[in-house]
């Protein structure tokens, strides 16, 4: 997948950034650099230089105009459980630490420090009292070794817990899959309901599975689509849903866009701003990481050549999950000059943000 992730490395990173969309559901800057040499057996990151936003003058000293200061907090994505039972990313500010992977898991524990940060309707995923150590292997597998309290969960939450752990840890650039241990013992299944985990789980295993429709496994593939939900306060956020799409006789990107247009199942509690009248006029074209989508006029709002930002967000999040897609651009009837409702020129490449669901409810 081509989703952007945070570096999990012992080296300081000086990363350039591209401004995406400010605050709200999307937030922060997208990281542009990549480390080639990633140390083995580490669970920490020295990310002060990449996250303070401070500039460096020619003398090598940091400055923000008058006086540079390292922020005491950093933004991290934590996958929590919402009121509908979905596993959803929430971007929260955590204290700066070298042990970022361990900290991220500790903030998934009920009764822990995350309790003061939980958005309305969300709950932590790990049982109270759970402790954890982590170890990053050379092949990109991170081992999460939990204490015995880890097994004190309801079996109905087992897959949600596995997904939350996996998607929280794979936000880091050099983490590809997650291996579970309990009290130093490797697990091939989860401890309560025996969900298979083999030698590790990755984002390819999916999240929030849509099982509403039966599909032919031989002629379908799993994709993660992003739909919208609302908190109890009416604040929107994006929910990833893994569905199997029938690709027989269909171009892959067109099939994914069609699935977004068709929307979530009626019983899902999720919504989508794409109407059924919206349609692609041509097959999407991928060049140099940018995917161009040419729609009919039904994608436009009521005020000229403007497209709802929530539609753009859903397309960006969904399509940049696909290998090789770094950004999307939208045209209508082959013509550009389109704007999102937040003022973004969406006929130019729009990249995936580093952080999602940054609004506080």
UniProtKB/TrEMBL annotation:
<feature type="compositionally biased region" description="Basic and acidic residues">
    <location>
        <begin position="351"/>
        <end position="361"/>
    </location>
</feature>
<protein>
    <submittedName>
        <fullName>Sporulation protein</fullName>
    </submittedName>
</protein>
<dbReference type="InterPro" id="IPR019606">
    <property type="entry name" value="GerMN"/>
</dbReference>
<dbReference type="Pfam" id="PF10646">
    <property type="entry name" value="Germane"/>
</dbReference>
<feature type="domain" description="GerMN">
    <location>
        <begin position="253"/>
        <end position="341"/>
    </location>
</feature>
<feature type="region of interest" description="Disordered">
    <location>
        <begin position="341"/>
        <end position="361"/>
    </location>
</feature>
<feature type="signal peptide">
    <location>
        <begin position="1"/>
        <end position="21"/>
    </location>
</feature>
<feature type="domain" description="GerMN">
    <location>
        <begin position="101"/>
        <end position="191"/>
    </location>
</feature>
<keyword id="KW-0732">Signal</keyword>
């Amino acid at each position: 997948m081509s989703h952007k992730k945070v570096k999990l490395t012992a080296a300081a990173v000086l990363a350039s950034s591209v401004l995406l969309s400010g605050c709200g559901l999307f937030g922060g800057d997208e990281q542009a650099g990549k480390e080639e040499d990633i140390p083995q057996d580490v669970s920490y990151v020295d990310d002060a230089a990449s996250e303070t936003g401070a500039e460096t003058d020619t003398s090598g000293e940091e400055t923000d105009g008058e006086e540079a200061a390292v922020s005491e907090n950093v933004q991290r994505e934590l996958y929590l459980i919402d009121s509908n039972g979905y596993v959803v990313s929430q971007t929260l500010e955590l204290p700066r630490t070298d042990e970022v992977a361990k900290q991220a898991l500790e903030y998934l524990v009920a009764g822990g420090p995350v309790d003061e940060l939980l958005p309305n309707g969300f709950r932590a995923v790990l049982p109270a009292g759970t402790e954890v150590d982590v170890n990053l292997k050379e092949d990109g597998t991170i081992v999460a070794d939990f204490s015995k309290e880890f097994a004190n969960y309801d079996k109905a939450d087992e897959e949600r817990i596995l997904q939350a752990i996996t998607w929280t840890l794979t936000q880091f650039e050099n983490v590809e899959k997650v291996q579970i241990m309990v009290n130093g013992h490797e697990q091939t299944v989860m401890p309560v309901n025996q969900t298979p985990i083999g030698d590790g789980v990755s984002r390819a295993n999916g999240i929030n599975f849509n099982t509403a429709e039966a599909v032919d496994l031989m002629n379908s593939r799993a994709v993660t689509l992003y739909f919208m939900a609302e908190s109890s306060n009416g604040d929107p956020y994006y929910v990833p849903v893994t569905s199997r799409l029938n690709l027989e006789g269909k171009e892959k990107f067109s099939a994914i866009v069609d699935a977004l247009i068709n929307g979530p199942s009626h019983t899902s509690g999720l919504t989508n701003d794409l109407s059924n009248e919206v349609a692609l006029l041509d097959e999407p074209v991928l060049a140099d990481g940018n995917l161009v989508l040419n729609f009919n006029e039904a994608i436009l709002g009521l005020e000229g050549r403007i497209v709802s930002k929530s539609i753009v967000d859903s397309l960006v999040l969904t399509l940049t999950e696909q290998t090789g897609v770094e950004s999307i651009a939208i045209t209508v009837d082959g013509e550009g000059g389109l704007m999102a409702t937040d003022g973004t020129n969406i006929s130019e490449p729009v990249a995936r943000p580093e952080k999602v669901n940054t609004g506080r409810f």
